[in-house]
Each structure stands twice: as C-alpha cells, then as structure tokens.
Design brief:
By secondary structure, the chain is α/β, with parallel strands linked by helices. The protein has 20 helices and 12 strands. Strand 5, helix 14 and strand 6 form a beta-alpha-beta unit. The longest helix has 16 residues. The radius of gyration is 23 Å and the shape is globular. The structure holds S-adenosylmethionine. The site of S-adenosylmethionine has 18 residues, from helix 14 and strand 6.
Length: 442
C-alpha cells in the first residue's frame, strides 16, 4: 500500500494536500480495518457476496465517516461514485450502507471523550482507535489505563519522522539542502524533520540517512560496545541499529568487531550492502539465532544485543496493519510457536555468548508485557538465566562516549534503572523496550 501510494501520487499529479489526505485515509482505514469491516457487514444481507473492491470502498468510506470531519453527505456521495465506477450495480447498496453508518462519527467521538477523561473501558479504546477488543484489553493491562489511553488517542496520527545517520560522512547540511527542516536532538546523529512528505523525493535515504524512531535510536546507542570489545547482534535485520552503533563506536565498527546474525537472507543481503555503502565493516551471517552455537562455536562477546522479532505493537502508527494482522495466540506466553516462546529461546541462546563482565541486551518494539518484562523474568528464572542478573542502563559503555547533555537526554527519556520503556506521549516516540542483563560469573 505504501509503495502504491508513493508511486501513484506523482503519476496522478495530485497536490501535496491530496496526497496527505490519501495517506491518512489509507493508514487510518488499515488500522481500523477489522472494526470497520464488522460495522459494514452488520448492514449487508449477504456479506460474503460483497465484491472485495466494493467492500474496501465501504471500509474507506466508513473510516472517513467515523474518524474524519468530512461532511456526511460528501462522504456518502463520493464513495457511492467510487463504487459506481467499479461495480455500477452495487451503488444502491453502497448508498444504503454508508447512510446507516453515519452515527459512527458520534459513537467514535463519545468514545474518545471517555478515553480522554480516563473513565473508560476496553470497548471505548476499541472504538476510538478501531483496534481489536482483545488488543485494547492487553494494552490496558500492560501499560495501565492512562498510557493505553494516550497510545490509542495517538494511533491515528502520523508518527514523528526522525532520520539517523548511518555513515560517518552523513551531515546535517545534506538535510538542510534538501529543505527537510531538520532539528537536532541532544544526542548526536539524529534529526527530526518537519517535512516528511518531501523525504522520498529528496534522495537523502540513499545518502547515508535512514528513518528510525527516537527510542529505537537510543536503544541502538545502548548497544555500543566498550572500547576494544566485540559486539554481536542477533536479529540484526537490515542493520539500521548496527550501523548507528558502528558509527557511534569509538573504535568505529572496525572490521572484526561487529557480528550480525539474522534469519532472513534478504535482510542480510541488504545489511551487507548498507555496511559497504557506509564504508564500515562487519561480519554479517545468515542463521537461526536459536542455534548460535552451531554458527559461532564458543565465541564470546562483550556486548550481545538481541533485537528480538516481536509483535511490533509499539509501532502501530507506522505499521497500522499490525493491529488486525496480529492474532492473540501469537503473544500468548504459554503458546508453543508464539513470539514469547521464540524470544525466550533466542535470549537463552544469546546468553551463552556473553563474556564475563559483558552485557546482554534484550530489546523489542512491543507494547505488551508478555513480550517484554515477562520474557526477561522467565529467562532469569531459567537454568540459562541463573548466571545473570539485571544490570544498570547507566553502566552501558555509551555513557562513557557521549557528552553530558546527551547523557542527560538519555536519562530524561528513561535510561535509568535496569530497563527502558518510554512513556506514551502524544506525538512522542514509539514504544520500544530494552532490558540490560549482566553475567554474574567472571
Ligand atoms: C526487530 S527486527 C530487527 C531490526 C534490526 N535490528 C535493525 O535495527 O534494522 C527482528 C529481526 O529478527 C529476525 N529474526 C526472526 N526470527 C529469527 C531467528 N530465529 N533468528 C535470527 N533472526 C531472526 C527477523 O528477520 C528480523 O530482521
């Protein structure tokens, strides 16, 4: 969908404003897809016979009715016209269904008022963000009512766009020349840009910059090894965090210092290309992180960073498809084959490669306790975790590499104690989790 929107907008010569509107409708309707589809189906006699294109048009129209302020008459007539153009015989049905859905706006508005007041139930979160009821319940349980409310109220808005430098040569001047209005942070190597619609055409993503959330960037910094130490990343993917860490390392991701492992051949290939483009070196391996002993023998590292595969529920503003693609069993701590079981297995496997005095970091971009604290607790309670204890974020090597303003920023954002998880904040960063573990043996 993103690719289609990017490719279509220039071809159709639509204005920046229309293009932004198309993005909003497409992303919002994706986030609320299951909720809206259920509403549409309530008003159709034989929902299974709805043509997919007609169903999609009705979902998009229902989104505009429920979540945007376009006058009802305009929404109905435009989506009826759209249906007429695709399936003329269904236009009467589209007209009837959309008219019946008109009260949705009030229903969503009332739910938002209750959520804002703090006196609400899971059904209100479901309506206000269009997410599944079970997910609303788990978010409330994991984050508490207040943070879950902030998260849900913010889900329909675009996430802030931060760019990180992934090469040593990347300079803020490049962003300024591209008219992206960059604003720096106290942390070196990251800028917020105010004109994300210009990002694609600007070409800066091919000039040593990548889009990365602010909290994800902080986690990448946390994974910088001590001077001279070896760093292993499991779940290194396309290596965005590894590149940030290499760039920020005093010894600069020297050739033999960075090892990346990922199960996806495609991502590994891209990671290799990106390291090459950045003029940095790393050993990048395809492999299953659960079988690191086969891949690495008894090699040990001073910094072992597991960037675990997860539900991505902390990043739903950027990836709204997660809200309805995720099935409840996938985050069930007791379900074999679900994410928490995989995360625990990966953490146990990674723990065997930490050298005495080193660090074992566990990170996710999940908002759910089932994938965060519960996995860490299960690890510490297991035989593999018996030789580990929680470490302190402020003991991380990065604290020795940055100036006091940058340190202050990390601490203000939540880098104290043994785990990091940003507070939900309107227009704030995504929810990424990080736990620091340290071996108790020498
Ligand atoms: C959170 S993403 C990684 C993002 C990456 N660290 C970055 O900064 O660009 C998790 C990664 O785990 C990988 N993965 C999933 N299952 C795995 C497994 N069993 N072993 C190793 N990697 C795995 C996925 O391919 C995915 O790239």
């Amino acid at each position: 969908m993103r690719d289609a929107l990017r490719e279509c907008a220039p071809a159709l010569e639509v204005s920046e404003r229309d293009s932004a509107f198309a993005w909003r409708v497409a992303m919002g309707a994706t986030l609320a897809r299951g909720f809206l589809e259920a509403r549409v189906r309530e008003h159709v006699k034989r929902p299974s016979s709805l043509e997919p294109r007609v169903r999609d048009a009705l979902i998009l129209g229902a989104f505009e009715l429920g979540y945007l302020s376009t006058p009802t008459g305009v929404v109905v007539s435009q989506w009826v016209d759209a249906v007429k153009a695709m399936a003329p015989r269904a236009s009467g049905l589209a007209n009837a269904v959309l008219r019946k859905l008109a009260p949705l706006r009030e229903e969503v508005r009332d739910a938002r008022v209750r959520v804002r007041s703090g006196d609400f139930e899971a059904a209100d979160l479901e309506r206000c963000a269009g997410i599944a009821r079970w997910l609303a319940e788990r978010l409330m349980r994991s984050l508490g009512k207040r943070s879950a409310a902030t998260l849900a109220l913010d889900l329909m808005d675009a996430a802030p766009t931060w760019l990180v430098a992934t090469t040593r040569k990347a300079r803020v001047r490049t962003l300024e020349r591209a008219n992206l209005d960059p604003h720096g942070s106290a942390l070196p190597g990251i800028w917020r840009i105010e004109s994300p619609s210009r990002l694609e055409a600007s070409g800066v993503l091919r000039e040593g910059f990548a889009v990365e959330d602010h909290s994800a960037f902080e986690i990448a910094l946390a994974s910088v090894p001590s001077r001279g130490a070896l760093r292993l990343e499991v779940g290194a993917g396309r290596a965005t965090k590894a590149l940030v860490a290499a760039r920020a390392s005093a010894n600069g991701g020297a050739p033999d210092r960075f090892t990346c492992v990922d199960a996806s051949e495609e991502r590994v290939e891209e990671a290799r290309r990106r390291f090459l483009d950045a003029g940095l070196e790393a050993r990048i391996l395809v492999g299953d992180g659960r079988l690191l002993d086969d891949l690495l023998g008894d090699e040990r590292f001073g910094m072992v960073f597991l960037d675990a595969p997860c539900s991505g529920t902390g990043t739903m503003r950027r990836h709204p498809e997660i809200a309805w693609n995720l099935e409840p069993w996938k985050v069930d701590p007791d379900a074999p084959g679900a994410l928490p079981a995989l995360q625990l297995e990966l953490l146990k496997s990674a723990s065997r490669h930490v050298e005495g005095g080193g660090f074992l970091l566990y990170a996710t971009c999940s908002a759910l306790d089932e994938e965060n604290e519960r996995v860490v607790r299960a690890f510490l309670g297991s035989a593999a975790g018996a030789d580990f204890e929680r470490g302190k974020l402020e003991e991380l090597p990065i604290f020795a590499e940055i100036d006091s303003a940058a340190k202050e920023q990390l601490i203000t954002d939540g880098f104290s104690g043994s785990s990091f998880f940003p507070r939900s904040k309107a227009g704030g960063p995504d929810l990424h989790y990080l736990a620091v573990l340290r071996p108790t043996r020498a």
